[in-house]
Amino acid sequence: MAANATPDRRSMEQVIANGLYLGAQYALVALGLTLIFALMNVLNFAHGQMYVLGGFITYWVYGRLGLPFVVALAASAVTLAAVGAAVEVLLFRTVIRRSVREESTMLLAAGIAYFLDAVILLLFGEKQRGVPKIVMGVFDWDNLIMPYDRILVGGLAVVFIVAFMLFMQYSRPGRAMRALAQDRVAAQLMGVQVDRYSMIGFALGALLAGVVGGLLAAITGVNSGIGGPISIKAFLMVMIGGAGVVGGAIAGGFVLGMLESVGLTVLHSYGDITYLVIFAGLMVFLSIRPQGLMGKPWG
Amino acid sequence: MGLGMQSSLRPGAVIGVAVYVAVLFVLVPWAIAASGRTDLYYTLTSVALLSIASAGVWLTFFIGRINIGQGAFSLAGGYVSAILVARAGLSFWLALPLAGLFCAAVSVLVGLPILRLRGVYFAMVTLVLTEVARLLALALPITNGAKGMVSLPLPGGVKLLGVTLIPDFATLATPNRAFYFLSVALMSLCFAAMYRLVHSRIGRLCRSLQQNEELASSIGVNIASLRVLAYSISSFFGGVGGAIFVAVSQSIYPSSFTVNDSVNFMLNCFLGGLGYVFGPMLGTLVLYFGWDLLFQTGRFQLLIFSSILIALMLALPNGLLSLRPFGWRRG
Amino acid sequence: MYGRSGLLRMAALGAIAALVAGAFGGPAAAENPTLKIGFVGVTSGPAAAWGTSNVRSMQTRAAWLNEKGGVTIGDKTYKIEIVTFDDQKDPKRAIAGMEKMAQEGIHYVVGPNVDDGAAAVRPVAEKAGIIYFPYAFPKTLYTKPASNAILGMVASYQSGPAIYKYLRDHKGVKTIAFVAGNESDPLSQRDSGVAAAKALGMKVLADKDTYETDTRDFTPVLTPIVKLKPDLLVLSGVAPANAPLLIRSARELGYKGLISTETAQDAQVLKEGAGDLADGFISVGGASTPEIRSATMDEFIARYTKMFGEYNDESNTKVYALEYILDTLKANPAAIDNVEEFKKTIDTFSAPNPFVKGNSTLHYVGMTSFGQKRQVAVPMVVNEYRGGKFVTLFVGSVD
Fold first, then answer.
1. Same-domain status, C136 and C177
2. Cβ A230–C214 below 8 Å, yes or no?
3. C139 and C240 share one domain
4. Does C84 touch chain B (CB under 8 A)?
5. Interatomic CA distance for residues A177 and A175, integer angstroms
6. Which of B1, B35, C82, C181 sits at a 20 to 30 Å CA gap from C4?
């Protein structure tokens, strides 16, 4: 093992490609979470479950019913948007209005996470699921091996990220949501319909989770139990980048992707302690720089 | 913010304490004996231990911090007592407070840098802390790593001048009942201590922290040490809870306390009510027992449980105790 | 608001009263003679597949036996009732589950599924007189002074050496690399695997690579290992959900060697998750392949599929525990509420194995590994995944 402790050039290129691919999907997961957090100060514990639900919808529509992958992805997006809107209107809105401390929404979010976990387990079973590959073949070029489906999914993730940013930057609802995220009261005074855009924001956040779930069903499949771990991973990315900042979520996603990819290779010879080093490093980083890479201090 | 019961000892409060003691130490054991449901000893022991750890989390809420890291201290406390008992041959009754003190000491070191963080930032760092603790337990040689520590002895007896103060648990016919009394007694002590603390001068200062840290510091309160103090008490509770759990199961693994536990401790506080000292106790009881009772519903257990949780949140977003079932007033 | 909050308060107090009543009420006594068999294990969360295949195997078999009129033990015929408890993979919950089983008067429990749970329930099981069948490998559970646990499958330290030896002798495997989840069970299995490989004179290229068990993309984990080009890559203690992902990542990174694991897997999961890339993947099962299994096993699979919509190949191993319990009770009816009688019967017990063709028997083993018979004899069928199905590579046994 010691002989391979220092990665040569070939593996370094592979490692960076892995990290970029991982980063693109992580960023997309983190975006939805950070959007909801920015708009409503809700840490959505159910984000991972929404991802899983999106994955299973794609699994059924594409894998079982045999419809085109794009249709499946759209089905995941629409369903999750509806779920997100319903969750905001029926549940969060009431609880936020009536609770003394806004952290109370954490219990509600956790309740929803459990609920979705239960529904998903009952509907889709306990087994790991996968779908036929969307594109066959492997890109094998000199120093780098990457299956075409990964390249496609990574590319799609980037497209969705850009689309989301353009939407937030230039569309009317996007502008309204940014105003809301900056200063809720001021936005309200300026005539932004808070209720309406909270709902749209929540729906959009859930939609993003559903889309990533669907996208990744094509690569890593989907499994009813992974919702919780995905949520926690998404929290980490959001924190690395800076909570509630769109750019931060993207940066956080890519940093964590790179950290995993590079860390696992560089620390390969230390084996067991790789993750200990990553997590301990993360704690130190967050203690020194709580606002993450680009967040506002204190969120 | 509300702070639970009023601080002066009204006759009502005296009656309340008397009823509490009677229920926990007389009525429950009697009911268990009468109904033959001895499995409830363990269930209630769990509730008591988890609510001790949750009480610690509540205390960090009290200084305005969302703590999702209590699992780390329960795990640490568990390992410290297991190591002291199994490797150093120490009596469990000495190992127990040492486990708590160890956690308190660690929390001072960890707390100094991280307690400056607020809101979700503190929450996330503590969440990572839970994972770090698990990975440390896997990696350190003294913990026996992945293989865990098993076949730990039950707590031994304590004799003073020939009088048996605490019997050797291994000789008891129902060690579970002994664990129940131990846990419930400790839980009562912890909550009494917390109640005193909350209604002391320090408690009032903490409350001011919760509302406005800048203001509190401007009137000359040493915020940093106050926060560290509260956090170390919190971690002490976590460690003690973990240590007793390990004594009950006579084994400990790196997965004995996980992120799930950390999250649950926090949820217990929310459910009971963040504004009430006794919130975590009630929250733990309802969450744990609720799950246990739904055991009959088989595969629908989680579905029903989560639906009830959501409904409760909708009806009582400020916790169960916001109903003031016994006429408690908010402070 | 007074009316509303007053109403709510009454409702809440009522609910608490109901909770208390429910807690102390206890279950109603059954009229027909019913034999309750318990299950304590994980049926939700990421590892749900492990316990679910246990529960469903037990429920399928119980329903089938009940349909045939029940099980005759001694001079009484019992209906079989399966009582299940989801411990959520939390050892603290597992203890509660075992307490619950004791309370229900159950003496035979299948589970828990993982090391920490199995260790945690031990004090309860020994105190309450319960024999339990964990799917966990720590030897302390099965060696003296422990005597109430019976290993429900073939342990990794038993199948591992057999697999490595076979591959060394038949496929020329010389170098081996291990990758394991960062959790107690997989890490322990890896350590025993490394020791076995070294004992066989194989060269261990990697023995420290781990992944977080919630990893979804294993390419970063496998990139450095694939580069070492081992002849055999062992996925120690891999969860069925992760196996196809690991296989797919390794193959797509250009890994050409063999891949194996010592745990039971599911063919459908491999097919969906890795497709042709999983061809040649080696795992262990009980009555996994058509060459091995009997007509009874085929009917079991058909009934399972009918009841739950889809079969799980992990049940090829997990079908056994209930059968062992019932057949041992038949051999010694006094054991029905006395596990000491059960323990006496263990040493001499032998009955035909209904799930496997030929003259195979159900009997207890474990002398070599544990110094006492505390393991069910499941045929150690080492299979290879090929084209969506398992095919037999070789059949071994444990003593």
1. no
2. yes
3. no
4. yes
5. 5
6. B1
Mean pLDDT over all residues of chain B? 88
What's the pLDDT score for residue A6?
44
Chains that touch B (3 or more CB pairs under 8 A): A, C
Residue B3: inside a domain, yes or no? no
Q: Are residues C50 and C67 in the same domain?
A: yes
User: Which residues in chain B (128-147) have CB-CB distances under 8 A to chain A?
Assistant: 128-129, 131-132, 135-136, 138-139
- Domain housing C167: 156-263
Residues of A in contact with B299 (CB under 8 A): 122
Q: What is the pLDDT at residue C1?
A: 38
Cα separation, B163 vs B172, whole angstroms: 17
Nearest Cα residue to C235 out of C160, C287, C313: C160
One-letter amino acid of A128: Q
Contact (Cβ atoms closer than 8 angstroms) between residue A220 and residue C216: yes
Is residue B1 in a domain? no
Q: pLDDT tens across A195-218, in order? A: 999 999 999 999 999 999 999 999
Query: Which of C92, C130, C148 should we substitute to test contact with B (largest number of B Cβ atoms within 10 Å)?
Result: C92
CB atoms A220 and C268 under 8 Å: no
pLDDT at B51 over 80: yes
Provide the 3-class DSSP secondary structure of residue C293.
strand
Digit-coded pLDDT (tens) for C184-228:
899 999 999 999 999 999 999 999 888 988 888 898 889 889 989
Long-range contacts of residues C9-12, Cβ cutoff 8 Å, at least 24 apart: C9/B323, C9/B324, C9/B325, C12/B316, C12/B320, C12/B323, C12/B325
**In-domain check, residue C107:** yes
Q: Inter-axis angle of helices A105-124 and A47-58, to 10 degrees?
A: 20
The pLDDT confidence band at residue A4, using thresholds 50, 70 and 90, is very low
pLDDT in tens, B98-157: 999 999 999 999 999 899 887 788 888 899 999 999 999 998 889 998 899 999 999 998
Q: C195 to chain B, minimum CA–CA distance in Å? A: 15
Residue B328 maps to a domain:
no
What domain range is B191 assigned to?
11-323
Chain B hits for C86, Cβ within 8 Å: 301-302
Question: The CATH number of the domain where B43 resides is what?
Answer: 1.10.3470
pLDDT at C11: 61
Looking at the structure of chain C, the number of domains it has is 2
Chain C residues close to B170, C-beta within 8 Å: none
- The verdict on C81 touching B (C-beta cutoff 8 Å) is no
- Averaged over C301-325, what is the pLDDT? 93
Taking the model in full, what pTM does it have?
A: 0.90
Are B313 and A108 inside 8 Å of each other by CB? yes
Question: Does residue C131 share a domain with residue C46?
Answer: yes
pLDDT at C317 over 70: yes
What CATH number is attached to the domain comprising C321? 3.40.50.2300
Q: C147 to each of A211, C116, C328, C340, how far by Cα in Å?
A: 52, 17, 16, 10
Residue C271 lies in a domain: no
Within-domain flag for C350: yes
Q: Chains with 3 or more CB pairs closer than 8 angstroms to C?
A: A, B
C221 and C297 assigned to the same domain: no
For residue A229, give both structure tokens. 């771990």
Residue B330 lies in a domain: no
Are C86 and C124 members of one domain? Answer: yes
**Contact in structure between B227 and B115 (CB atoms under 8 Å):** yes
Question: Per the structure, how many domains does chain B have?
Answer: 1
CA distance A225 to chain B (A): 13
Q: Residue A12 carries which side chain, given as an amino acid letter?
A: M
Q: Residue C211: beta bridge partners?
A: C181
Q: What digits encode the pLDDT tens for the residues A128-158?
A: 898 888 888 888 877 788 889 999 999 999 9
**pLDDT (tens digit per residue) in C366-384:** 999 999 999 999 888 899 9
Whether the CA torsion B123, B126, B131, B134 is positive or negative: it is: negative
Residues C345, C298 share a domain: yes
State the pLDDT confidence band at C17, using cuts at 50, 70 and 90: low
- Judge whether C207 lies within some domain: yes
Which residue in A129, A131, A220 is closest to C216 by CB distance?
A220
Q: Tell me, what's the ipTM?
A: 0.89
